[in-house]
From TrEMBL:
<dbReference type="InterPro" id="IPR058868">
    <property type="entry name" value="ARM_7"/>
</dbReference>
<protein>
    <recommendedName>
        <fullName>ARM repeat N-terminal plant domain-containing protein</fullName>
    </recommendedName>
</protein>
<dbReference type="InterPro" id="IPR011990">
    <property type="entry name" value="TPR-like_helical_dom_sf"/>
</dbReference>
<feature type="domain" description="ARM repeat N-terminal plant">
    <location>
        <begin position="6"/>
        <end position="244"/>
    </location>
</feature>
<dbReference type="Pfam" id="PF26524">
    <property type="entry name" value="ARM_7"/>
</dbReference>
<feature type="region of interest" description="Disordered">
    <location>
        <begin position="560"/>
        <end position="601"/>
    </location>
</feature>
<dbReference type="InterPro" id="IPR016024">
    <property type="entry name" value="ARM-type_fold"/>
</dbReference>
<dbReference type="InterPro" id="IPR011989">
    <property type="entry name" value="ARM-like"/>
</dbReference>
<feature type="compositionally biased region" description="Acidic residues">
    <location>
        <begin position="567"/>
        <end position="593"/>
    </location>
</feature>
Amino acid sequence: MEKIQSDCPYPGCFFCVMKEANPSKRRASVLKFFRELPSQDDDGQVLPISGLWNTAMAHPNDPEFINLGIFECMSALIWKGLKNRRWLSHDQNIYIPYYAAHIIGSYTMNMEEFAERAVRAGVIPPLVELLRGRLTWVEQRVAVRALGHLATYPSTFPAVADHGEVLELAIQLASSSLEIVYSHFYQFVDRRIGYHCDLLTRGMGGVEMESRKAEEWASQLQCWSLQLINCFAFKSEFLHDICKADFLVKLPGMWGGLVNENSPAGVGLLRTICQSKLGRGHVANIPSVVEALCNIARSSDDWQYMAVDCLLWLVQDSNTCHKVIDRVASTLIDLANISMLGDYKKLGDTIVTVLQECMQQYANSRNSISTHIKEQIDELLSSKQSLKLEKNMPKEDLHIKQAAALVVKLEGNSLFSSGNIAGAAAKYSEALALCPMKSKKERVVLYSNRAQCYLLLQQPLAAISDATRALCLHSPLNRHAKSLWRRAQAYDMLGLAKESLLDAILFINECSQSNDPDLSLKQNKVPDYAERLVKKQMRTAWLFREAALKHGGIHCEGEASDAFGQEADDSEWETASESDAENDATGEADDETEWKNDNQV
């Protein structure tokens, strides 16, 4: 290619081409550049490719380079890197397949028309080769991203699906990606490949930055693999391959972590699977998956609504309801006071309707619901009926019920203070029975107080149920600080680290915004008891934990801190009520009275 500017040391310099003022000449020069670049062996080729990478990310909807043959060029460069290892190892060419696949993914993430052009340009075969692991996990990450975008569109999905191994490779990658990144990069600092480090940090950080970015990229590799699988899950002919028990059982544990919280990850795929009758059948047959969906549905996770969708669809399906109802009903009942969540405008009403229909269905069925679940559903239906009756109840009668509930609650507080925890829990139950359904703020306090009692009585499941009910009644949803903290402790007792971590972090966030002197952070300092719990759960829920245990990065349960990169806290974590009563008001029964505004709630 001819020089555009005489002072440029590189013949055919792409950056000089782009400075051409005449649009027609510039397009002609760019077209020639894209056609000739794959056949050239000059030094410095990575520079224009990295420039194109920046342009693709900044302007993914700009058609100029699409029309001039960028997809054909990138496809040819990937093939060159795969077939010509001498060229790949020369100069900085090792970066080029990564940039080329990334460019394809960026230009196809928004525009179906661009995706169609990419397929016609032949990008899928070289991307599949990268997905196989022909180079390294770094190239796999951008390949699965690009293929996921191509599989999103109806017009280009068949071209991806025609490569039968893509789904199998994506499933394998989703299952093994964290282990691959840990063992091939994270574990041994002195063995890290140089260009991986450069791509991770852009030359702006040291070992610590590399490790943090590796965790983020590992999460993306897994989540983008799940996104690709999700495209196949909408097609019934692929569900048998996806819905294998050894894969489904892993999905609830696949989450974006704190480094990739914008991805629905495993629960997102489960939601797609549960939209089909075939998929629901497979999910209902794995109790641990159903139980995990219940935990996510109760949690303060951003993807809570997806788990709720799964549970409702499982209960509404006559072929799966009898398999899951005894596990699922309690969770749905705890959530029955939520109004808006996800696409639901009146989630509570939907839950009541679904459970009511379930009761009617089993009235004349050979399959039966357990007596305990029937009683819970009956109690829910009765509470909703009470709420309707209260609308026509004289205000004087409501005030009498409110006053009676307040008296009983204060008796419960007194019993709690004297150490009679079981007696206090019974009083809070009695107060809940008296308290008007529309007095939401007081019911939040009563449920939260009873949750604290159940914690001290070593009944974590009951504590989670009550704390969840308090959080669902609270406005805004899932933001009652004391209930978050109590549920975080209960989850910790059950070994549910991720759920405990999310609640503990939200608790700290709420404290930072609270006007309550018992909760507000003193001198902007996180309470020691909350900091200890967060550190503990971050170690336990660490993305690489299983891989580190398998590969010797953690030799036993007490040594997670070595791999995680934090100092171990040797002191056993205690509940706030035991060790921090002086500093943590959540270890005491709440004495909040907000009757004045209840008629307006």
